[in-house]
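G., the chain you wanted modeled:
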Amino acid sequence: MKLKSIIAAVLAVVLAVSLTACGGAGEDAVYAQSMRSLNDVGAVGVADRFAGVAVSGKTKEIKKDSSLTVEEIKVEEGQLVKAGDVLFVYNNESAALNVEQAKLEIESLKNKIATCNSQISELTRERSAAASADKLGYTLEIQALQADIKETQYNITLKEKELKALTEAAADTQVKSDIDGRVTEINTSGEVSDDGSEKPFITIVEVGNLRIKGTINEMNRGALNEGDEVTIRSRTDETQTWRGKIHSIDWENAEKGNQNGGYMEGGSDEMTVSSRYPFYITVDDPEGLIIGQHVYIEPGEDAGSWEDQLTIPAYFVNDAEESPWVWAVNGKDRLEKREVVLGDYDELMGEYVVVSGLTLDDYVAFPDETLKAGMKAEKTDGYVPMEGEEDFDGAFAGEDGAFEEGEYPFEEGEGLMDDGFAAENGGAFAGEDAAIPEIVPEEGATAAHAD
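Predicted structure as C-alpha cells:
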C-alpha cells in the first residue's frame, strides 16, 4: 500500500506538469482537455452564478453637528439599541450660545442693509444736484450698494434657516436612533474618510432585516436587472436555498478589482481591470441565513444547482478581465482562439462560470507561449500524457496512461510493484537509490527496463 501511495503521488506531480507540455501526439501537436472532464458532470445547463454574502438590511450613519459640543455619549460599540433610544447628548449651554450668536449675526446683516439704504438716499440727492458729467459716477455707486443689499438679504435667509435649526437643537439636545440595530462604531477621535470628509460620529447596523449583497462585472451587466427573481444557494449545502428579488444595483459606485486567476501578460492596471458594481437582494424568508454567510446567487426562481453550471478553471482563460478567450479545438482538431463570455468568478474554487462560447463537448488547451492558431490538437478526457521530457522520459507514454515496457531508463536491480496492475503494465518503480524498496516481480510479469 505504501508503494501505491508513492506511485499516486508521483502521478499527481507529473499530471500537474504535463498540462503545460506539447508533444506526445505527433509533431507540432498539443494536448487539449475536454470541458466534460474539467466539469466532471454528465450534463450541463449554462447559466450565470454570482458570489454573495448575507449582510444587515440597513446602515444608519449619524453625523455630529460640528458647531455643538457633545456632552455625553449614551451608548457603547456593540450595544443593541431600539428606535427612540438616546445615542448622545449635546451640551445645552453651547447650543444656547450658538442660538444667540446666530441672532446677533442676523441683526448685523439687517443693520448693513439699513446702512446701504441710507447711503443710497444720500447719493441720490447728491446726484440730482451734480453736473451732468458727474451723474454717471453717482449712478454706479448706487448700483453697487443695491447689489450689496440683495446679497445681504440672501445671507439673512440662510442665517435664519440656521437659527431655526439651532433653536430646535437647543430645545432638544438629545440625538436618538430611528432604527433597531447594533452600534458598530463611535468616532470620538474625529477620523476622516479617504476623501477627506469626516466619518460618521455613530454608525448603527440594522438587525432583523437581512439582505444579500453581490457584485456584477461590467462584462455581464446585462445578466441582472432590478426586480429580477433570484435563487440564493448555500455554499456548504447546495440543497439549501432561499428565494429573493434584486432590490437595487448601484451603477454609480463602481468597485475596481481584479478577479484573480486569469492568464494575463504583464499584470494589469486601472485601464485593463474591469469594474464591479454592488447589488442587493431582499430575501423572502431569511430563516437559516446568518450575517456574514457566503452564498451563491443564481438568476431565476428555481435555478439549478452549482453542479448544473458550466465552469472553467481560471488558468485556462486569457485576458479574463478585458476580452476573455481560450485556446479551443475546432472541428478539424486544430487550435483556435475562441472568445468566451464569463459569468462570476469563484475565488474559492479558482474558476469562472462560462455563459457562452464553450459547451461540455468542447476541448481546451492550457495557455502557453508556444501555442499557435492552427496547431494540431490531441483530445483527451483524462490526464494529459507527456513524453520526451529530459528528467522523466516517457512518463505517460501508454495510450491509457499505463507504464509500458522499455520506457524507463532504470538501473539494473529494479523490480515491479507486487500487484496485478503493475505486472500487467510493466511498471517499474524500485531500485537501490529510490525511496521504494526493491520488490521481486511475480511469476509471469514483464519487467520494464532501459533499452
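The chain has three domains: 1-21+384-443, 33-57+208-379, 64-186.

Shout if anything looks off.
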